[in-house]
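Please, structure for the following, as tokens.
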Amino acid sequence: GSLAQAAAREGKITQAESNLVANAVRLDDIPVSQVLTPRPVVTAIEADLTVADVLRLYPSVPHGRMPVWEQNPDRIVGVVRRRDLLKAAGEGRRDVRVRELMGKAHIVPENATLSDALHDLVRAHQHLAVVVDEFGAFAGVITLEDVFESLLGVEIYEKDDPHPDMRELARQRGHRVGRRAGPETPPKAGT
């Protein structure tokens, strides 16, 4: 057993504390690809859509932060926050394009460890990172929440989350549509 397990057996730390230490050590061994929310279930928004377009396509604006793409869904150019979309709408700026509201996308390779991703996200003061594969194609997203769930060993979700476990949703959708599950992308602006 580990030092943490021995300390728990001796009553020096609780079992929960022992598990936290063990999970923290494991963050160095778990690749981002095992924890990310996969591309097929990520809501990514085209950069030239207006706030009105986004609200028409996604009336509930399903996520706090969403990747923004340009030219094709593999080319992520930023991240837009729900609160910025809703603020613009509330101020009557429904014709503003998503690109004007987006912030910089923080990029993490899918073979990075959760420990690396956590350090990168904290250092960059970001909650969400865009995950890319070895060719630079969009593979999915990872959030601080995802890393903390791995660290704590429990699911963290808001009570109004439509799908608390996006990885499970992706498995279900992938099973339904077969191996060719692709990204869900709205029509391009102006179509």
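The longest strand covers residues 72-81. The helical segments are 3-9, 15-26, 51-57, 82-90, 98-101, 114-123, 144-152, 166-177.
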